[in-house]
Amino acid sequence: MSASELRPEKRGPLAGIRVLDTTGVVVGPMATLILAEQGADVIKIEPPEGDLMRRLGGRPRKPGMSPKFLHFNRNKRSIALDLKSPEGREVMGRLAETADVFVSNMRPRALQSLGLTFEALSAKNPRIVHCTISGFATGGPYAGAPAYDTIIQGLSGVAACHAEVLGEPRFAPFVLTDHLVGIVAAQAICAALLGRERTGVGEAIEVPMFENAAAFVLCEHLDQRTFEAGGHMGDPRIMTPDARPLKTRDGYICVSANTDVQARAFFDAIGRPELKTDPRFVSVTARLANVRDYFAVRTAAMAERTTAEWVEILRRHDVPAMPYHTLHSLLDDPQLRGSGVLTDEVQKNQDGQEETMLGLRHPNRYSGTGVPESRLAPRFGEHGDEILAELGYGPDDRRRLGGRDADAAE
Amino acid sequence: MSASELRPEKRGPLAGIRVLDTTGVVVGPMATLILAEQGADVIKIEPPEGDLMRRLGGRPRKPGMSPKFLHFNRNKRSIALDLKSPEGREVMGRLAETADVFVSNMRPRALQSLGLTFEALSAKNPRIVHCTISGFATGGPYAGAPAYDTIIQGLSGVAACHAEVLGEPRFAPFVLTDHLVGIVAAQAICAALLGRERTGVGEAIEVPMFENAAAFVLCEHLDQRTFEAGGHMGDPRIMTPDARPLKTRDGYICVSANTDVQARAFFDAIGRPELKTDPRFVSVTARLANVRDYFAVRTAAMAERTTAEWVEILRRHDVPAMPYHTLHSLLDDPQLRGSGVLTDEVQKNQDGQEETMLGLRHPNRYSGTGVPESRLAPRFGEHGDEILAELGYGPDDRRRLGGRDADAAE
């Protein structure tokens, strides 16, 4: 009896939803990671060479299992299919009949040649939600152009926002637009599944990376350009030089004091009560107009004591503040461990010995449906035989269709 | 007849879903912006002083309508309610009976004192999905501590990732964690609504900012620390100094060449075919181990020609590349205008004269359900009377309950 049968109520909000995922690297796998953690049965359909991220995502402990691959693919099942071969198409066709969602980031021509357009799949399964994560929306002049995270960061204004602060274009130190648009796609897929409850039929959805990234940037930074041609762009509270973790005597601290109550408490906390009536700082509007001065006051004050002293003083004054974490100190944070998001995974290796690794878990809580037990990312093709058996293929057919050695692409 | 009745099929995937939103600033409004654009009826419940973002989000053209407020609140309706008053509670109680979703970022004690816990609301309406966006997950040591974007950026490793690249901690030049976790919350809400289709009842969901931000950072950057205590953290492909928009003779360009085919094509394109057989660069694994050298080759090559020349040459060789946009040049991008994400909104002001503003639209496409007509962000309390009338209140009650001057908080 599986864990989910023992606790039927903790199978996740998406229990019963089947997702076919033909994507690789980050944007698609991030979308389906969320769905998998919420209980969807995500079938990762890997090409004969495997998801590129198996090799691109950092030095692996086992072949084909890079750290980034592990973290973006937990809770999924993997089957290797060559979608260009008759056998691959046959299995894909059967899978599509059983699925609620199909996700790809192929361009229209590739979908066409593989028989995987919305029209083709919905003819077999009218309830299927067909999600294409594209680089650029269909119909625009760049439609069909290749898109990768850094290209989208450079084109969408993400790098330009860094230039506003740093004086030169830089990328965000994440696969930011892939990662972000993956979350956007998971949301759009669930919205379309809800729409299906009303209409009775699935639909095709397109989630374009560039447009999503640009909208993300612009809704924060259109600023005065919203109202007038040539108007100032860039949120002044974010682009001002002192908007940064503030140096203390022994480290860094982050402080936030946006409301009038918080700002007055902050001036008391730093022993500058006279600033409470300074016309530059008396209201939200005044502090916004004088944001450089306001943030400079904060910077000067924080340099005078240690981080722990300031955290304590500011807490006493009800001013929100927290220390700054390095990547390594973050792992010792009691909240992160306490909430179960960061965990030591223990698994047996092929020799029966226990190995541990650091793993991540879904951060959100669902009081009724819960989340299912966490499972490690799949080896290449690990679940091929199991999935083929579920589709009703007998042993001979399974050998014919899925006889791939699980280590071939690793 | 309204536009949505004329085109019943284009009401959005979430048509028929009602959302009560008591949040302000960015994280909650971002969550409900997505739901509103997908057709949900989002009722923005504003306190007597209005959403802080009306004043904090940049210099407004009209009082209380800052640019950032405008962009994060389009397609919503606004009602002003003092939830601490008996009148406010009365209206809130009736609204809760009609709603599918309730969203807040109040701490548990505030929800308790206002009678807005999941237990209280589900007693009246068992199908309600009750979403709390918290700073820190309940149960951990920081639960209940105040959380703001910059504090979460500093604590969750976002600022630390910038330190890896820049040598000192910096914030991402966005309200990144608010903005991101808002999208996460919209996704979690839709997942819970799907769960409700199966279970028949709503549930409480918690979306903690810190845990979500830390998971975002760590699934990219745990790297070797996944496997061993003290192991290296930070994706080397992202943290390497030359991972940035590359200087050309007249600007910047972004290039991506990750697969073997792309890497070989890139070496041809820059006139260095001998590098195709250089052992440092012959495979994904080799280029990952020598990422500094690989990226340094790219940097050196790009300096030799103009952006337009390289874009043309790289396109001919099938190497993904795009120019870098500044914030202002982004607005002239033909793809962004062509796909309709950036539009000139024309509206009549109170004197009947036309005013224009730059507006944003939902970036995703839904072939069946579409998205509803876009509406501008609401003035403070703009829809109070209309919403009270829908709840069945007569004119006298509406005056008693909602007689707030729409400009009071602006």
UniProtKB/TrEMBL annotation, chains A, B:
<dbReference type="GO" id="GO:0008410">
    <property type="term" value="F:CoA-transferase activity"/>
</dbReference>
<dbReference type="InterPro" id="IPR050483">
    <property type="entry name" value="CoA-transferase_III_domain"/>
</dbReference>
<keyword id="KW-0808">Transferase</keyword>
<feature type="compositionally biased region" description="Basic and acidic residues">
    <location>
        <begin position="395"/>
        <end position="410"/>
    </location>
</feature>
<dbReference type="InterPro" id="IPR023606">
    <property type="entry name" value="CoA-Trfase_III_dom_1_sf"/>
</dbReference>
<dbReference type="InterPro" id="IPR044855">
    <property type="entry name" value="CoA-Trfase_III_dom3_sf"/>
</dbReference>
<feature type="region of interest" description="Disordered">
    <location>
        <begin position="391"/>
        <end position="410"/>
    </location>
</feature>
<protein>
    <submittedName>
        <fullName>Formyl-CoA transferase</fullName>
    </submittedName>
</protein>
<dbReference type="InterPro" id="IPR003673">
    <property type="entry name" value="CoA-Trfase_fam_III"/>
</dbReference>
<dbReference type="Pfam" id="PF02515">
    <property type="entry name" value="CoA_transf_3"/>
</dbReference>
